[in-house]
Amino acid sequence: MSSTQEVGSIFGEGVGPATAMLRSPTVIIASIGLWGMNVYFFRLFGINYVRVLHLDLVKEKEAMAGTKSSSSQTNKNNGSSSAELSDGKEQFADNGNVPPDSRTGIVMIGTSGKNSDEESTPFTPYLMDHPGAEVTAPKLFFLSFFLLALLHLTPYVWIHWLGGDIMTAVFAFYGSVAVGIAVPLPSTRWVRHILMVVLQRAAELINPRCACNGTMPRPIPFIDVFFADGMCSLSKVFFDWGMLSLIATHYPHPVPASTHSIVIPSLVAALPYLIRARQCIIMHTVGRYKNDPKRYQHTLNTIKYLTSIFPLSLSAFQKTVSIEAAEKLEPLLLLLLAVNAFYALTWDIVMDWGMLSDPTAVLAASVVGEMCVPTGVANEKKQCAHAMLRPRLRFGVLASTGILIADAVLRFSWLLRFCETSLFPSKDVFVLVTQFLEVFRRAIWNLLRVEWEQSKQTKAKRLEQGGEKGKVFEAYSDEEEFPLMTNMSLQLQMSAPIRPASVIRS
Description:
19 helices, mainly alpha, single chain, globular, disordered C terminus, 1% strand
């Protein structure tokens, strides 16, 4: 969620690169570079983020294919279509690959073998439809630096050399980027493929996924949840886009100070939260069909996103009343912002990262000492930091603690509003800084969120394998890795080889 759900000023002229029309592309470009940082650390710490993001899509595709196959068998007197489907799945499994997703065009290499789990093979970057379409951290870094340079160069050339204005300069920048992507150069193939994936996932956000004929709606895949959460951090960017549409509509005249000039951008800014809340409602419905006792968590998550919409709505209302009336509403706005920040921070730590979920363990850790909490293995104990966070920390204790603290601080970056005039030269600079702080918070949030999702997926797959291996792993928590280095004899008894935990960092 955004750290500040307030409505920005849309009638100011702006200063330099912080001009309202330039700050949204600046933040998007920064997000590209920060995703490059995510990719770098995922690969460095052996987190197969591609498999994590696309596993639900693969399962959904297989389920839909299985349903069609069953229907075909009912209508025909032979099972050829089902056999072909089964053969196709076994072929991918024997190769250690996952079938390519027809909607994303992504092939995940070395991530889901027949008798392997998520940890069984080293991390391998994924490929798209054609060679050269791999997405790597250096490519994302170079793209972000290039776009940032183009963003600063285009307005300068357009205004000082061609005699244009900032409005047309912004559209010239977007046009230049569109042309650069459309030109079929081999070096930009990966950009076109990623853009298609983003557009496809964006389209899925408005997919009804409804319950037809009384059947259960399709669950929301993790990649769409992850995508929508990222959009929430770009709420201010959505507001700027709504404002840009108003400016374009009234161009070359200024935007009138009317109610609709506030309502339209504010509705656009609230769109990511509404999408995410809708996803939670759908998942609650899925849980009701499955009699899931934990479906109430989706209701609590829906409330969390509503706490983001409340301050945004109140801030928009303040723009439509007198200064005196707006000042009287300021304490209520601060209360709503504080409630949202505390609620979202708690959800980050406990639900999104799986940390601090056992207060008893935390109490024991604080009382007994440094090596205090049993892992479930005889004669072994975990450090107190693992007890307070969780036993399995791929990024290590120090990095995970640092991310937690940074996330907590950045959740309250809206407090900068109290020193806005002393720290920032203009309102636009303040908004730009808070936007950047939020996308940076989202980038470090991504690290622990994907790590935690990988742990849950790994545990789920181990339990699905059943038999002796499943019973052994069932004793461990979702976040724990099986202690391979100290149980090599038991490892030899298992049917599938498991990669040594060489990348475990703590």
